[in-house]
Amino acid sequence: MLFETIVVGALGVNCFILGDKQSNEGVVVDPGADCDLILDAVTRFGIKIKYIVNTHGHFDHVGCNRSLKEKTGAELLIHQGDQKLLELAAKSAQKYGLSVEDSPAPTRFLEDGMKLEFGRRSIEVLHTPGHTQGGCCLLLAHEKLVITGDTLFADSVGRTDLPGGSHEQLMASIKAKLMPLPDDTTVWPGHGPSSTIGRERRENPYINE
Prior knowledge:
The protein has helices at about 35-45, 60, 65-70, 85, 90-95, 165-180, 195-205, and strands spanning about 1-10, 15-20, 25-30, 50-55, 75-80, 110, 115-120, 120-125, 135-140, 145-150, 150-155, 155, 185-190, 195. The mean pLDDT is about 95. The chain is α/β, with parallel strands linked by helices.
């Protein structure tokens, strides 16, 4: 499987490009900024993007939704709980002195347990509210990796002081949906370095508080 991380935007979002080499179908997760950079990578890899997936609706993760959707024809997916955040993304960015494109409406909504197939690969959607009400993680069990958005980071967890956030709900999501995964599952967060479920279970101070 093709798996590429591109760090984009002023807030250093990890945008992920996934591809099935046999079918050349692919997925872009959290295209937050630097649209040309993401599109150049997609072209270089020679894949057709089937899905654009937002792990949540904050502006730094959705800023290139429109460009990618228009230029690839891919479906745009986000959890319904974050639809309002998606609609307000451009205005939210302005409050931080930044600018992002207005996002088009999602093609359909992510749901807990949904499977997104691209070629021979499959992504399972894990609804993990807490950072936002519609926050989701994306599990590729066969590849032993999980994309956690702003739910879980290396040695940390997502902030919960923004509208719709709840620390209690976030910790419940992490413990119910992520901690049962195998120790050797690689964690790819929305910002910062990767980790593993085993390491976070042992060493993350928020999980062990």
